[in-house]
Structures are given as C-alpha cells and as structure tokens.
Amino acid sequence: MTSSQKVKKQELPPTAWAVLGLLSFPGERTGYELKKWADSSLRFFYWSPAISQIYAELRRLEELGYAASARSGPEEARAKRRYAITDAGREALAGWAADTAEAGPPVLKHGLLLRVWLGHLAEPERLRAMVGEHMERTRAELAAVREAMEHAADVPQWAFPALALRWSERQHLAELELAQALLQDLADLAADHGEPAPAAVTEA
Q: 36: Cβ–Cβ under 8 A, 6 or more apart, which residues?
C-alpha cells in the first residue's frame, strides 16, 4: 500500500467500509444488488446507504484499488457493471474490522423518545398513540428481520451476518418491551396528575 493509500484509508467513512464489506462475500455484484442486500441486512443493525452513496463509495474504492469492476458482455440484454473486492481491499478491510478503536460507541437517535421528552407540549392520548404506532412498526421490522434470518440460514457463507441478524431480532424484541414499559410509565404519570385512566395497555 502506498503512503497516499494509507492516508486515504484513514479518511474512509464507515459507509465505505460497509460497502466494501458487502463485496467481501463470494461473488460479484452490481450497485443495485448491493443496495438490495444492504436493505435486507445492514439496515437492521447499522443503516442502509442510499443507492447514490453506494455508487459514490464504489468509485472511491476503485480509485484506492480496493475494488474492481467490469461490464457484462453481450450475452446480457442490458449491460451491467459488476464489482468485486481486490486482494488489497480484503487486506485493508480485515485490518479495519480488527481495529476495535474505530468501532466507536453505538449511536441512538430515537425519534419517539424525543417527542416523549417534549411531552409537556403534547396531548397525553396522542403520546400514547405514537407509542402504539411505534410498536406496530417495530413488529413489522421484527418480521422482516426474521425473514432475512431464514434466508441467511440457507447460505453457509452468511453465518456471521446471521449472527448480526439474530442480535437485531433480540434488539427489536427488547424495543417492544421498552415501549410496553413506556406505555405504563405514561399511564402512571397521567394518574399522578389526576387524568382519566387510559385504555388498557396492549401486550407486545
């Protein structure tokens, strides 16, 4: 690796490493295929970059020599550019993945809790409704996680992604428990202020 590559390596954002990580599994993939895979795996525990970000990072990774691409031949009706990780890219990715100092703490930005924090400006019933809506979305996400887990279970090379998805399943179950407890906290707060008792708390 040249000195310029080392400097650039240190400046790579996590999204670049995530895209390179998607390429580290067997096979070559188009940018569209990488986006679909990110939507069905990465988004459950990290995030899914926009398609424009994926292509921007692929160009950056190619410039660094971490990825290579080739256009499909005339056998395909529509030409596609497929990407693959290079030996240099795999070496750099392995080094980044082993560097725990770069992992950093998890970042939580909970939109619902921000609104609860501002609950003194909201109607109590609306707050409780928002928690219920959040629980419904979480249940839908949990179903999507479990579907992805079933898909990953059939592919031996995806054993470690399957572990990450299992963690995400537990996280969504914990989120439902936390939301259930939040509903009870809101009910207790309403009782302390002499407000009418809300409807029965729905079990997760």
A: none
Determine the pLDDT at residue 120: 93
- CB-CB neighbours of 34 under 10 Å: 22
Question: Model confidence over 158-181: pLDDT tens digits?
Answer: 999 999 999 999 999 999 999 999
Residue 151, exposed/middle/buried by CB under 10 A (0-12, 13-18, 19+)? middle
* DSSP assignments along 107-126, one per residue: ----HHHHHHHTGGGS-HHH
Q: What is the rounded CA–CA span in Å between residue 29 and residue 33? A: 6
Q: What is the pTM of this model?
A: 0.81
Q: How far apart are CA 204 and CA 185, in angstroms?
A: 15
CB 68 within 8 A of CB 83: yes
Which residue in the block uniquely carries the two structure tokens 């019933």?
125
